[in-house]
Amino acid sequence: MKIAITGKGGVGKTTFSSMLSRMFAEDGYRVVAVDADPDANLGLALGFPKDIYESIVPISEMKKLVSDRTAADAGSFGKMFKINPKVDDIPEKYCKEHNGVRLLTLGTVDSGGSGCVCPEHVLLKRLCSHLILQNKDVVVMDMEAGIEHLGRGTAQGVDAFIVVVEPGERSLQTYRKVKKLGNDIGVKKVFVVGNKIRNKDDEQFIMNNLEDGESLGFIYYNQDVIDSDRSNKSPYDTSELAKQQVEAIKNKLMLLETSK
Ligand SMILES: Nc1ncnc2c1ncn2[C@@H]1O[C@H](COP(=O)(O)OP(=O)(O)OP(=O)(O)O)[C@@H](O)[C@H]1O
Ligand SMILES: [Mg+2]
Predict the structure, then answer these.
(1) What residue intervals traverse the membrane (predicted)?
(2) What's the gap in Å between 167 CA and the centre of ligand 1?
(3) Whose CB has fewer CB within 10 Å in the chain, the N or C terminal residue?
């Protein structure tokens, strides 16, 4: 299963991605958590020790790797390079592992518009589409906020988008845009997780804005989650309640994914 976690800025994509990844790992799945946000911080939320976390070099910044694989100098827009670089060994070689979760940090590319075809971009896109899985493999992609980047294709080929929303109109608007874009790039399944919920009214507000079968559940506003961020710990290790709520979400996801 390969899923991309999307949504408006600050709604809790990274928090949820980290908890879901840790939970799948604990269940015995082989998990690759992909940090696809140029402002990468998934490793922190996964609870990686600082020294490992700080040693991570994003794939797009491995200039030699990029140029070796694409036979181009990094950033050499307009020159000749391979559009089908070898990537199958990259996850093994460049993932950092902690708590059973393998983290792959993509980094950023100077996109120069949605039609960008720089070598870094070609490598990232091919790498993501190559993360094809064996049984019991799960890929969780923590995406950049918003929708602009979705057209660039790193999330193409995922089985589903999970859009994280808050009980407010602005993040729901992003959800509607993601849904439309998903359709355009062939991702038909779009699920929703409501985060930072305070009460049943919040749940209802979100439900009123969704179609049947889209909601995976809710994570309540939780002081332990905030504290975990402040003390650089994984929310998975600090909040039992949020963990239970993520578990219910994961179970529903599995149910919907296996009953298709
Ligand atoms: N259920 C929750 N209760 C309380 N605070 C939360 C909850 N979920 C997330 N937060 C807090 O909200 C902030 C943003 O969370 P997070 O970084 O996961 O969002 P994001 O969508 O990944 O943001 P960005 O768009 O910047 O990548 C963090 O301070 C986090 O601790
Ligand atoms: Mg984030």
Answers:
(1) none
(2) 14
(3) C
